[in-house]
Specification:
Elements (H helix, E strand, L loop, with lengths): L12 H19 L5 H12 L5 H18 L24 H20 L17 H24 L4 E2 L2 E2 L1 H5 L1 H20 L4 H23 L16 H29 L4 H28 L2 H4 L5 H4 L5 H9 L3 H6 L7 H11 L2 H21 L5 H13 L5
Antiparallel strand pairs: 1-2
Helix pairs in contact: 1-3, 1-5, 2-7, 3-5, 3-9, 3-17, 4-16, 4-17, 5-7, 5-9, 8-9, 9-10, 10-16, 13-15, 13-16, 16-17
The structure holds farnesyl diphosphate and magnesium ion (2 copies).
Farnesyl diphosphate binds next to α5, α7, α8 and α9.
Length: 399
């Protein structure tokens, strides 16, 4: 199933925000200067091989998209669109196929609109391509918080590789890695305070809290439903809600709240801030669902980290939950957290035999559609076009 032809990649985001994106690693490195060279070295370790930098990229492109709207008050009729349509409160009379068609129509319209504008206007003449210094700082803060959480996550997961290299704790030991993660978070907090915007501070502090709670929810694993006979029942709506809430907390919250913060720093209306939040929330969920899929479909060299890792950690993600509905015997593996010698292999094979991977991909498309629909409510611009493309291409990412 294709939303928009993935070949439609007629805009290069690096032409729009390349210089800002490339300066992020250098700026972060400066922020990590301390009187303790060993601490600085460890904290900088993951930044030596830059990752996808997807969170800063989204903040930068969204800044351009929204700043343009704030500078040029828009009478875009799309803004009258009832955007609750794209979130939870789906009208009862619309079945999911109709809703999907509606979303696709809106998305195609947005692509068309964006294509009709001059894609590469000279930067100096286009006020709309401005990114405020506070938004650039915010982009760095998202990467700092994300990296801090990865350093700690790799200790919790006892992962050996990240970005194709040994993990921080493998190289420097657990104690130093914990402290380096704390230090990254502290530097992020100082940068955040310097934005002098209490609402933005509260949003990003909430993200940090959500990250911890999401990780805790994951440690508890799937909400298991013991039936009265004492055995585990098949995954139901509650199981999926728990999984999606955990996904929101561990991944989508950072995308969602930094998108809202981007709008707040632009001085935009509450409505635009809410649209930005919905965009980030749905994009983040699609992104994490693809991550959970890649754990079953990518090769280790594509991922730059071990694959099949979730099962080994006792975690049942969407492909497993769907497969379990089809093959109830998976329940006993989930219940004992894939702890017996053949459990991970048996579950892996059943997931590949089931339609779990296909169903998860459908779910990814649904969330990506919602994210793109939120973008449709913002004024067309080259940056909005780049975000639409980015969301569309995330569905097909291989790493
Ligand atoms: C990666 O998930 C981990 C996260 C998205 C969040 C981890 C959060 C914590 C460790 C809580 C502490 C937070 C802070 C801010 C210090 P994953 O293990 O599924 O992904 P992976 O395959 O890339 O390891
Ligand atoms: Mg991990
Ligand atoms: Mg983890």
């Amino acid at each position: 199933m294709t939303l928009v032809d993935p070949e439609i990649n007629n805009i290069d985001p690096l032409k729009l925000v390349g210089s800002e994106l490339f300066s992020i690693a250098g700026n972060i490195s400066k922020l990590l200067e301390t009187g303790n060279p060993q601490l600085s070295k460890i904290a900088r370790y993951y930044f030596q091989s830059t990752g996808k930098q997807i969170r800063p990229l989204v903040v930068l492109l969204l800044s351009q998209t929204i700043n343009k709207m704030v500078q040029t008050p828009s009478n875009n009729p799309n803004l009258q669109f009832d955007f609750t349509l794209i979130d939870k409160s789906v009208p009862k009379d619309l079945d999911s196929d109709t809703l999907s068609i509606l979303r696709n129509t809106l998305i195609s319209k947005a692509f068309e609109e964006s294509n009709n504008i001059d894609l590469y206007q000279p930067r100096t003449n286009d006020f709309g391509l401005t990114i405020f210094p506070t938004q650039k700082r915010l982009a760095e803060i998202t990467e700092l918080i994300h990296t801090a959480s990865l350093v700690h996550d790799d200790i919790i997961d006892n992962s050996e590789t990240r970005r194709g290299k040994p993990t921080t704790h493998q190289v420097f030991g657990n104690k130093m890695a914990v402290l380096a993660g704390d230090f990254l978070l502290a530097r992020a907090s100082i940068s955040l305070a310097r934005l002098r915007n209490p609402e933005v501070v509260e949003l990003l502090a909430t993200v940090i809290m959500d990250l911890v709670e999401g990780e805790l929810k994951q440690l508890k694993n799937t909400q298991t439903n013991n039936n009265n006979q004492g055995s585990i029942s098949l995954p139901n709506e509650d199981t999926f809600s728990y999984y999606l809430l955990k996904t929101y907390m561990k991944t989508s919250s950072l995308f969602a709240n930094s998108a809202r913060a981007t709008a707040i720093l632009a001085g935009s209306s509450e409505q635009v801030a809410e649209i930005a939040y919905l965009f980030g929330k749905n994009l983040g969920t699609a992104f994490q669902l693809v991550d959970d899929l890649l754990d079953f479909t990518a090769t280790e060299s594509q991922a730059g980290k071990p694959v099949g890792a979730d099962l080994k950690l006792g975690i049942a993600t969407a492909p497993v939950l769907y497969a379990w509905q089809q093959f109830p015997e998976i329940g006993k593996f989930v219940e004992r957290r894939f702890s017996e010698p053949n459990d991970t292999k048996a579950t892996w094979d059943l997931v590949h035999k089931s339609d779990g991977i296909e169903k998860t991909r459908k779910l990814v498309i649904e969330y990506a559609q919602k994210a793109m629909c939120a973008l449709c409510l913002l004024s067309p611009s080259p940056s909005r076009q780049a975000l639409l493309q980015l969301t569309n291409s995330l569905i097909y990412r291989k790493m």
